[in-house]
Each structure stands twice: as C-alpha cells, then as structure tokens.
Design goal:
The protein has helices spanning 20-30, 37-46, 88-102, 117-125; strands at 10-14, 49-55, 58-68, 71-79, 107-112, 129-139, 144-153. With 157 residues, the chain is α+β, with helices and mostly antiparallel strands. It has a domain at 10-110: Aminopeptidase. It is globular, with a radius of gyration of 15 Å.
Length: 157
C-alpha cells in the first residue's frame, strides 16, 4: 500500500531534456507498456506542449499535448504513483485546458483505457464526454485493449 505524501507546494513548468530521466522513471512505474526515453525526447523535439509538475526538486507528474489545426490531443498525462490522490492530475489537466484555450483550440481529444476508472472520473469531472471507442488500441498482456475516446469543446479565455 502506498502512503500518501504530505501536501507541499508544487509548480508547473515546461519540460526540458534534463527532465526526461525522471519522467521516464514515472512512466515505467505507472504503466505496463510504458513510453521510452526516445518518445519523450521526440515529443520535445516535435514542439509538443511538454509539461512537468514539480514538488520541491522532484518531478511528480507530466503531460504531453499536441496542438494542430484548431484541435488538441492529450497524448499523455501521468502522476507518479507516490503522489497520487493529491490533486496533481487535476492540476495538470487544468493546465492543459488553459494551454489549449490560449492556442485557440476548438476541441480537445484523448484516449483512455476503459479500465482506468480514476482517469475517466477526472475527465468527466472536467466536462469531457465519451464520443467513441477504438477497438484494440492499447497493448495488453493477452491481446489488445480498446480505448475510450473522449472530447471536450474549449471555451476561449
């Protein structure tokens, strides 16, 4: 059982190449089929909105957002298992939504495993609605798992 960490001040900032090690470590601890260092580096090089949430000098979570042609796609949003249940996922999602609005995005999309009930709860809380399923989207130990596709219309600031 993971003991919740005490609440300490956190800040959100742009990810840089020095963060990739910590981000990749969180990814490895969080997912059965994690992204590798190269994927995070490529996201930075591509110019995606790559963000970290930092507590003291430790990366506690991160998000990756792609923006193009009036739409945005949340590619990854993850909080270190040691720091879950502290509101950091919501804080990262709020930051994503703010960035999307500032980029004049009209709609934002994401895929999530239907088994990820906590993430789905957060997305619904923030006004996302399920619009489709993508069959066999995610790798799984036995075959593939579908993805639930969610979207949200973005209001201008």
């Amino acid at each position: 059982m993971i003991t919740p960490a005490p609440r300490v001040p956190s800040q959100i900032r742009v990810m840089d190449t020095n963060d990739i090690g910590q981000v990749s470590d969180i990814e490895q601890r969080s997912y059965e089929f994690p992204w590798g260092h190269r994927v995070f580096r490529d996201c930075l090089l591509t110019g995606y909105h790559c963000i970290v949430l930092e507590r003291t000098d430790t990366v506690a979570g991160y998000s990756i957002l792609s923006v193009a042609a009036g739409e945005a796609h949340i590619l990854n949003l993850c909080v270190d298992p040691r720091y879950r249940q502290l509101g950091y996922g919501e804080k990262l999602l709020d930051d994503i939504l703010r960035r999307a609005a500032l980029a004049e995005v009209k709609e934002i999309f994401l895929e999530v495993r239907p088994s990820n009930r906590k993430a789905i709860g957060l997305y619904r809380k923030k006004g996302f609605r399920q619009i489709a399923d993508r069959p066999s989207y995610y790798r799984a130990y036995e075959g593939r798992e579908d993805a639930a596709v969610f979207s949200k219309r973005i209001k201008k600031f």
